[in-house]
Structure formats: structure tokens, C-alpha cells
Amino acid sequence: MTSTAKYAIEAYRRVAELAQANAPALNRASQVMQLNTWVGGGASYFTKELFSHRVRLQQAFQTALDEIAELIVRQGGTAPPQLRVITPLQTSMSAGAEGFRGIDVGQMELLIRELDRAGGPLMEAGSQLQNACSTLCVAPGAGPAIGSIGAWSETQTRDLRKRLETITRVTPIAENGLPVQGPFLGMDTIGAGAAAYGLFGAFDTAPNKARDLLSRASGGDAKALEGILKLQREGKDAGLAQRVSAWWKTLDPATAKKLAGAAPGLVGSLNGLPSATRDRLNRTFLDQEQKRLTTMLSGLKEKAGRPEFSGQARAGLEAAAERVSLMLKRVQEVRAALAKGGQNGFPPALLLSFDAVNAHGRAVVSYGDPDRAHNITTYVPGFTTQVENGTADFDRALAVWSEADRLDHSRRTASIAWLGYDAPQLDIGLVIPDHSVAVDGAAEKGAQELASFADGLHATHDLAVPARLTMVGHSYGSLTTGKAATLRPPGTFADDLVFVGSPGVGTPQAAELGAGRDHVWVGASDNDPVAKLGRFGGDPDSPKFGATRFRAGEGGHSDYWIEGSDSIRNMSRVVVGKSDDVQKMFVPFL
Question: What are 246-281's pLDDT values in tens digits?
């Protein structure tokens, strides 16, 4: 027997002890997950990952033992008694098949303890196994695999504990208004059940890219949030805002402060963050942008005035200065819109998003806090919308707030002006299809961002406040709104859809918009030629479309928000849920 064989025999003994002590480390946690600890939603993903790590853990130990045993025989030693550490785990787990149903708090605490118990020892066992195997040049990946599983267990321990602590701060409320007794937080509760969905229902079911980006951001990487914003703009992941909300709630306060300080506008643009937080960050960003652009403009003007710059060089500097002046005008326009909040009986304004640089700018202003409002309405403008000329759009949101508050003063209203997409412009015309009013390219892109914005409104709303969300699309904005509605499952985008001055909403039937025919409303003024186009999917004002048509008066395309008009009154009645009071148009027998 060689000296290598003797060393291998001793290594086999040490590895066998490690395996017997640590190979079962995830067994108990896996068994806990079979006891309806967490049902539906993200449970399916988490359980698959847990079971997968349990198998990999045992396979890593088994591989190391088998390869050391083979080495002993090759070196002239006697094969050691075969040790089998791979054990079956019967499972009947089918979580997620029917959507999120809830969590058992007591069992979740047990799961967290079991994962906590496994993490540190597995990382140490992985290190010891790596030392033993590297000396013998066998099973090179076994030790690192076990160490990574230990690190995963510690990460899940911290994450699940933070989520559970957040959940248990919410008092479960039953339908009768009384606190719910018992440990299970599920669909039979209002506050805690919905909070449980936000923290556990979408747990790690995001594509790996989103999950990895949020993980990087948790380490303080603000650049990772640019990737989240890209996914947000794509609008494909309906659960992204819920995951961002859960991530923010469980984020270390020091890291949150670091991210906010490094990139306030970036963080403030994230759907899923509380509206008050977004407002604070975006106002900071607004101040920074004004200072930056003012300095830039001054430098450009000074440079353009130098005698050494002439001809094309000076023209280029003057064009750049003009562009920066336009961006500053956007800053000033948003400041003016915010200043109207808190004045003349209006609620304080919240800045939910701002971008002075890209395309025609972006600005989302809410009059009233949508996280605590009973009535939430989002106005989506259309053709020629620009932040620098957004006074009328912001005033329309205020007009709806005023009428809604008059109709239902006992309940809080939040009225949002969503200048959050690149609407078609006169200056571009038909040259660039994606920006042309004649095609739906701009609406397609805008719909993705609008759907994501609505996801954020749902994710951050105070669960103790019953609420209804109404989307109001005007002109080309109605096409954007209609397309956004079809990007989400029925009943999850908005409670009511209101279209005024609409050239079409992208579908020939109201029933295809996911809100129910009785919750799709169309207003068309008598003298509005755009409302008669029916270009995009047919005429919404036609009885064949199947929406509820309401009286909108005799005004033109931009007159739907005139104080005292039939249109503003009827839109606001929908917003506050007084649909029986809406003045409906006569529907002829078909």
C-alpha cells in the first residue's frame, strides 16, 4: 500500500464524518416546505431551488467519497465500506399551481431557523472538503459546491427573516373589520394577506436577470438599477414592481441611503417604491438637474461668444445651448406644476418621475398621495404632449381632482398626470414610424411603461385603505391606455377605463380590455373630429364597441376638462365610483 493510499484512507474517514454530519442539513427545511408553510406564488420557485440544493449537497459529498474510494483501490489499498449519503425525500409539493394563497408564520419561522442552522456549518464543511480533495486531486468541485449552498442558506435566512418581520408588522384585518386571529396570513385577510403576496407571492420568481440586478443593488451597486429600469420600461414582468417593493422594504437602511444619495433620480423612478419616497428623491434630482443644466447653459453661451468660435462651430454651440434651454424649461414647468399642489384647496403634489433629457422629457405628477387615496385616477395625454408645454396636462389632472373631491369629499382622491412616454409630435410627423400619430409604434412603447406604472400603484398602495383605480386616456393617449390594459391579466390593470376624444384603443371590442364592458367608458364631444376617426381598431364611440358611452358635450378635441361640462362631471363620477350617476348616451337597438 502506498503512502498516498494511507493518506486517502484517512481523508475518506474525515470526509465520511463531514458527510454524515452535513449531508442532511437541508432535509428538515425541505420537509417544512411540504407542510403548507408557504403556498402558491413564489413558493414553487423557492421549493424547487431548495430541493435542488439539497440534492446537489448530497451529490457533492457522494462524489468526493466515491472518488477517494477509487483512489484508495488504485493505490493498492482495500476499498472502504461503501457509504451512501444520497437519501430520497418524498414530496407532494405543488405550490403555485393556483396562485399565491398564503404563508404559515410559525412554520416560516421554523424554516428560517433550519436554514440558519445549515448555513455556517455548510460553508465550513465545504472549506474542509476542498482542502482534503485538493491534496488528493479528486472531486475538485465538491467543496466549492457545498460552500456555495451554505452561502445560499445564509442569504435566504436573512432575506426571509426580513420579509417575515415586515409581514408581521401588518395587522391582519378580516372582512368584518376585526383583527384576524391565528398564524396563517393568506387570502382570508386584507392587510397581511396582500402584504404577504408582495413579499412572498412574487418571491424570486423574476427572471434571473431581475433577481441578480436587485441582488447587486442590495450590495450598493446603483448601476444595477439601470437594468431594473430597462426591464420596467419593457413592461413584460407584471410582478416586477411587487418585487422592487419587497426589495426596498427589506433593504438595509444604510444601503438605501447610499443608493438614494448616489442616484436620486434613478431610485425615484422605480415603480414599487412608496410615492412619498419617490417624491423626496425626485425633488432632489430636480434641484440637481436645474443646477447642472444652468451651469452647462452658462458655459455654452460663454463659449459661443468667444471670437475663436464662428461659423459651424458657433452654430453648433448655439444649438446645444438651445437644447439645454429646453431642458431647463422642463424643469421650470414641473416646478410650476408642483407649486400648484397644496394651494387653493388642492392636496400636496408628489413628483413620481422626472427626466429632462431624453426625447420630449418625462414627468409624472400626482395631486394627492396615491398610496393612501381611495380614488386614484391617472390621465394619459396624447398627440403633441411635451413636458416643456405640459401646463394644460397638469391642469387637467387638477380639474379632475377638484370635481372628484366635490363629488366625494369624504374620501381621498389622487389625480395623476402621466407624461411618461414619448407621444407623437408635429415636428416628426410621418418621418419616423415609431413616433408618428398615424401608426401605433409610440403607443406600443408607451403602453409597456404605463402597465409597469400601474403595477407600481398596486404594489405601494396602503392595504388598509380600500381603493379604485381609473385610467383616463385622451386622444392618442387612449390608444396607449388600451394597449396597456391588454398587457395585464383581466382585472389587474385598472378598475375602470375612460377614453375621451379617442381615435381607437387598439381593439374592436371593449370586452377585450380586461375591465369588463360595464367598466369601459367612452366620451366623444360633438365637435371632436378625432373621436370619429376609428383608426386604431375601430370607433370606441360606436355602440358596436360595447363600452358605456357618456355625454361629453359639444366642445372640441381639447374641451373635455372644462369646468362644469358634462364630460368632466361624468369622468369624475366614474373616478369616485358613482357610475349610476353618469349621464349615459342612448344606445339604439342593434
Answer: 888 878 889 999 999 999 999 999 999 999 999 999
C-beta separation of 225 from 213 below 8 A = yes
- Residues contacting 359, CB < 8 A, separation 6+: 422
**Residues 156-160: what's their mean pLDDT?**
85
CA dihedral 506, 508, 512, 518 (to 10 degrees): 110
Band of residue 556 on the pLDDT scale cut at 50, 70, 90 = confident
3-state secondary structure 478-541: HHHHHHHHHCCCCCCCCCEEEEECCCCCCCCCHHHHCCCHHHEEEECCCCCCHHHCCCCCCCCC
| CA nearest neighbour of 103 among 95, 93, 115 | 95
pLDDT reading at 189 higher than 50: no
Contact between 119 and 78 (Cβ < 8 Å):
no
Answer positive or negative: Cα dihedral of 470, 475, 480, 482: positive
Q: Which residues 6+ apart lie within 8 Å of 409 measured at CB? A: none
Helix 441-460 × helix 240-250 angle, to 10° = 40
Helix 566-575 with 391-407: angle, nearest 10 deg: 70
**Could you report the per-residue pLDDT of 496-524, keeping only the tens digit for each?**
999 999 888 999 999 999 998 899 999 99
CB proximity list for 468: less than 8 A, separation 6 or greater: 374, 375, 376, 495, 496, 575, 577
∠ Cα 175 177 180 (to 5°): 80
- How far is it, in rounded angstroms, from Cα 164 to Cα 170? 10
Q: Given this model, what pLDDT does residue 202 score?
A: 52
Residue 339: burial class (beta carbons within 10 Å; 0-12, 13-18, 19+): exposed
Q: What is the pLDDT of residue 234?
A: 95
Q: What is the pLDDT of residue 107?
A: 82
Cβ 482 vs Cβ 506: under 8 Å: yes
Q: What is the largest CA-CA distance in the chain?
A: 103
Q: Is the pLDDT of residue 198 over 80?
A: no
pLDDT at residue number 210: 83
Of 23 and 526, which is predicted with more confidence?
23
Q: What are phi and psi of 523, to 5 degrees?
A: -125, 130
- Read off the C-alpha cell for 198: 408582495
**Residue 462: band (very low, low, confident or very high) from pLDDT cuts 50, 70, 90:** confident
Cell numbers describing residue 170? 401588518
CA distances to 147, 307, 359, 379, 407 from 297, rounded to whole Å, are: 55, 18, 18, 33, 47
Question: Checking DSSP bridges between strand 413-419 and strand 362-367, what pairing results, if any?
Answer: antiparallel
What gap in Å lies between CA 364 and CA 352, rounded to an integer?
5
Please give the Cα distance from 257 to 328 (Å, whole number): 27
Which amino acid belongs to residue 184? F
